[in-house]
Amino acid sequence: MKPCWVLLTLAILWLELQNGACQQVNRRKEVGENRIRPGGKRAKVRYPKLKEKEAGGRGQSILTQVLDKGRFLRLGESVSLSPGNNIELRCKGSNIGWSYPIYLDTFNDSRLSIKKSDKYSQFILTSPSAADTGMYSCWVTLCDGSECLKDPDRTSRTYIYFPDKDDLFVPSTIHFEIVYLRPDRTAVIPCRVTSPLAKVSLHREVPPEEMEVDGTLVSYDPTKGFILQKPSPEHQGVFYCKAVTKAIPQISTKYQLLYVEVPSGPPYVTIEASLSSARGGDNINITCTVLGEPEMDVTFTWTYPGQNLRPVSVRDSWRLINRGMGHTTRISQSVMAVDDLETIDFGRYICRAKNKRGETAVVTSVHSN
């Protein structure tokens, strides 16, 4: 009986092993990419659809360059293109805004054209040159009625270089440029280059010396120029940039660096009359003076006795002055002249000075003897 029991046990074990092996084979087929249907046809594998970011919607650049034969190149942070060859850029979307070097608009350049369609916007620039080097960007515009906003998640930009061995620096119509230095903000000496491969150095004209560029206090960005992180009076003077490639070195525009003493804010105003006490028939001048930032325009308005009843003359002017330690300040003045004083001319003279950061009013009085 024992041999029979042994044989029966072995038979049962063999059947269980066979059944398990078949199940494992079936599982391997389920993992595979190709399936066989009962009819003998192959079934296509359906992959799950990717979400918008995974598929490259908001996560990818919407700005592309159109190449020959219908090919497209998705643009990154920067690209170098040959001058003279027309460029076509496309931005995906039905409502697109563009930004490009401002002088193309300033001079109403006919080489530039922008065309829009339902699916994309087309930007074409013919015969580009070294002067066209700069930042180009596009974005999707979202509108709610008459109010439109730039979509920050669908904005792309690229800096395009147009290398030219004869113009290592981006050409400028200004041959001597003023750069104002302030202790509370960075300053930029805008000597941009047309090729990212150019080696650029910064030089002072008097005394002649090359400035140290340590990458921290002074650094260079080919898309902006030399950046001074903490300007000081020692940085004043006339400077120029020198660029070197395989060709002959070239010199940039000259830059006059002026240190600004007056902080930003509403005008700081003083008023003074040539005579505080006068008699009929006298002539007086009332002077309103503002010390401010060199490039900050100031406008003056007056309120005075006899206004609209008799003529007076008002003369406005401004100039740059140095005030100790080489600090540069703009002095703006408005001078009111009142000739042959009459009774109606005695009283309060109010001067209001206004810049883009605010307004200040000051007052003085002229009394009769």
UniProtKB/TrEMBL annotation:
Sequence ranges assigned to domain Ig-like in this UniProt record: 267-364
Database matches in InterPro entries: Ig-like_dom, Ig-like_dom_sf, Ig-like_fold, Ig_sub, PDGFRL
Signal peptide (from-to): 1-22
Lineage: Eukaryota, Metazoa, Chordata, Craniata, Vertebrata
GO cellular component: extracellular region
Name under which the protein is recorded: Platelet-derived growth factor receptor-like protein
Stored Gene3D superfamilies: Immunoglobulins
Oligomeric and partner information: Forms a complex composed of PDGFRL, TNK2 and GRB2.
SMART domains recorded: IG
Subcellular location: Secreted
Domain of life of the organism encoding this protein: Eukaryota
Gene name linked to the record: pdgfrl
Keywords: Disulfide bond, Glycoprotein, Immunoglobulin domain, Repeat, Secreted, Signal
